[in-house]
Amino acid sequence: MTGLDIRVEALEMVYDVDGEQVHALRGVDLAVAAGESVALLGPSGSGKSSMMTLLAGLQKPTSGRALIGGQDVTAMTERQLLALRSRDVGVVVQGPARNLLPYANAEDNVRFAQRAVPRDRRDRLRPPVELLEELGLGHVRRSRLGALSGGEQQRLSLAVGLAGAPGVLLADEPTSQLDAVNRSHVVDMLVSAAAGGTTIVVITHDEHMASQVDRAIHLRDGELVP
Ligand SMILES: Nc1ncnc2c1ncn2[C@@H]1O[C@H](COP(=O)(O)OP(=O)(O)O)[C@@H](O)[C@H]1O
Ligand SMILES: [Mg+2]
Fold it and tell me: For residue 11, what are the contacts with CB-CB under 8 A and spacing of at least 6?
């Protein structure tokens, strides 16, 4: 899969919290080239997760657009978004368990994430066990979610996000629960996905991760820092 480009145009997100307006994004413009890897940095509450969930089509913006591979995800139906996420856009949201099927074992979670990949791209898919081993999860491949630690669930979420060799990977703090060794497994896997052409947007507080991507961008109070 060659990477897909991302374009964000005047993206605004305002939440209504008990009648109070919370401005999470105040008109963000951003272009990420196909195959580029970007770290999205910024203090807690600066709008990073809002930006990512909007890119993933998990919620609709107040105004503005977000395009992936030229397609406006903010205008897509749920069905179109499901197809996009199962074929072209790997998503790892904050909170590892939310990315995983609770009743399937680790290996089946990865296999399930590969089910919708079109036939002509299946030769690019990596065997689930190989992905798991690279993340230090080989020994728990037959374990269900409940038997995995938070850090194991977090690494499994990344394996699931990359399982379909997506054109874009969106990952929200994928190393927040990991020790140094496992953080470096995750960084290595992102770097190799980027080398394979996947466009990456990763939210992180990890300096090492930020140093391994093509570009770091900073959000502050809902705006990109120039
Ligand atoms: N679902 C939501 N409902 C109400 N407010 C939200 C919601 N999600 C985020 N916010 C608010 O929007 C702002 C940005 O949050 P978020 O996008 O999660 O930032 P970050 O990921 O950088 O911490 C914060 O003030 C947060 O409280
Ligand atoms: Mg966040």
Answer: 25, 27, 28, 29, 51, 54, 61, 63, 64, 65, 66
Q: What is the whole-number distance in angstroms between the Cα of residue 71 and the centre of ligand 1?
A: 25
Q: What values do phi and psi take at 194, rounded to 5? A: -65, -40
Query: How far, in Å, are 13, 57, 156, 165, 194 from residue 42 at the CA level?
Result: 17, 21, 25, 28, 22
Relative to the CA of 49, which ligand 1 atom is closest?
21
| pLDDT mean across residues, the chain | 95
Is the pLDDT confidence value at 82 over 90? yes
Span from the CA of 47 to the centroid of ligand 2 (angstroms) = 7
> What would the pLDDT profile of 121-162 be if each residue is shown by its tens digit?
898 899 999 999 999 999 999 999 999 999 999 999 999 999
Given a cut of 60, whether residue 1 has pLDDT beyond it is: no
Looking at ligand 1, which atom is closest to the CA of residue 17? Answer: 4
Q: Which residue has the higher pLDDT, 96 or 60?
A: 60
What are the chain's domains?
A: 34-44+77-220 (3.40.50.300)
Distance 45 CA to ligand 1 centre (A): 6
